[in-house]
Structure formats: structure tokens, C-alpha cells
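quick one before i forget lol
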Amino acid sequence: MSGKPPLLLICGPKHCGKTSAGLALKEILGGDFVDVDALIEEREGLTARALYRRGRTLFQEAESRAVSSIAARAKEADGVLIAAAGGGLIDNEAAMETLAEDGRALIVYLEVSSAVAWRRIEEAAKNGGGLPAFLDTENPKAAHAALHERRAAAYRERAGITIDAEGKNPRQIAAQIAALVTEPGQSLKPFYRNGLRFSCRRCSFCCRAGPGFVFLSGDDLYNIAKKLDMPHHEFIQVYCRWIDWDGGARLSLKEKTSLDCIFWKDGCLIYEARPVQCRTYPFWESMLGSEEVWLCTTEECPGAGSGSLVSGEYIESCMELERSTRILTKKDLEYEWRIQVTE
């Protein structure tokens, strides 16, 4: 791809951050931004949710008209046009056909796990939004899981760019998209080849007040249980939870109701035995996708971008450790560790 495409269409499941990432991307690339659902409301006089409750066909026809309008606008735009679509766009054959025929749109898929997407939907429902109409079934969670997996596979097939959006803020997502659409395929290693500055200040930025997962490897389980002088099965029952992930269940530390890590109390209670995920932070691949992504991290984490110079070799070793670490599953515990798993 030479230069930026005329239309960047950001897609993904409900509450994955499409609109906020799109607005952040506009700040980086310039151009204009439009939210498809907001455009539908403006044109039809009803919110997308209200329109869907009147009938799926009625909604999809309105969505198709909005997409056609955006595609036409992109042709006349001087710069890039960034659009955030509704989660079900992939199921709208007419709208997808319009995009395919136009040939000027780049679909960017923001990927989050089914578990994360469901939790965000639940949180929105509790805050007064209610469940969306497409989940008005006897078992909304099961319906969502099936729908999420089907749509995820379809989006990955149609998308020109797929971004792992989990655990990233809108600016980090936007910076990663910007790097890919402006200089695709360029090596990203040079910006940290000579090292980056970082010193952990134990400030709790990565440990508190936000939802997330801390997945555990076999070594993590062994080391933390040893530090706490607890049997492995007891440690799992007291401090761990199972997270549905890619069709399986992964072992993660629990969170408090405040969303703090279970081991945070005026500091990390297991700092010397903290998991690989924590030890390699902030040198994760997701945070080193481009220099812009790293700069976003330095604005949020007080220790990133300051303190001691960490060598490029060490940064690479952290990324390799993160890639190679095998997260424990229920099958691992039952067949290798001989621990009976209970829900």
C-alpha cells in the first residue's frame, strides 16, 4: 500500500474501542472521522439500537445507506476518512459488498476475546444501557460467545489489518494503526535498538483500578505458591480464576472488586515472585509495535521513558520470553500437574 488509503474503516465487537481509537487516529493522521451508528441516528432519527429493535432488516438497510454515503464521501475527501462501524457490519452483506466494489476502504479489525467483550457488555447493561437487542435470548452469554467467534473469524478474513486491542488504550491502538498504514512492513526494531529507559517505581499503574488479566505459566504457579508457602491446589482456589480464551480456559490471578490485582496492598505482595507477564512489562510486543505506541506508554507509566537505560538485547529477551511462555490451561493442571480443577 503506498500512502494512506482514502477510507479506514475500524470494525470489531461491541465495546472494543472503535470510536475512541478512531478519534485518536484522526489526531495522528488528520483527515475526518465519522461514527457509522451516529450517522445512522442523524439520518434516520432513531438510534441504531432503537432501529434494530424495530427489525434487523430495517436496521441493515439504514446501515447500508450510511456505509454507501461514507464511501462516496471518501472519494471526495482531500485526506483520509476514518470511520468506526457497528459490531455487526460483517453480517450486512449489502454494506460489505459496497465496500468491496468501491475497493478504496481498508478494514481494520480490533480484536478482543469473547470474555472481555462480554464483560464490557455486561458493565454497560448494568449502567443502564441494557443488553443489545441481538442478545435478547434465553441464554445471552452463550449467544454472545457463539456470535463473537463467528464474527471474529469473518472479520479476520476480510480485514486488511488486525490489531490485538486487549489491554491497550485508544492512543496505543491508533498509533499502531498509523504505523501500519503509513509504513507497512518496515522493521520496528531500530527505535529501541540502542535501548529504552525504564525503572519500575512500584507505582501501581499496571496493577490497579482497571480490568485485565494476569495469566500464569507453570513456573509462575510454582514460584508464587512457594513464596506463599501454599500447596498448588490451594493457591489456585484462593487466588486464581479461569478465563475463557480462544476456545479454552486460561489460568489468571483474581481481581479485587476495586479491579486491583489480588496481590496489591500498598505495594505488590509477591514482587520477587511476580509472573512473567508482570516481569516483562512494559517490554511487550503490543507496547513496542512502533515508537508512537511506546510514547503513549511513557505518558501513562511513570517509570517508562525515565530511569536506567535498558539495552535493546534485554528488551528483545523480554519479548521472546513473553512469546515463549506457555500459559496454564485446565488440561495442563489435570493431566500434567494432577490437580483436579473445580469451577
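fyi Residues 190-335 form one domain.
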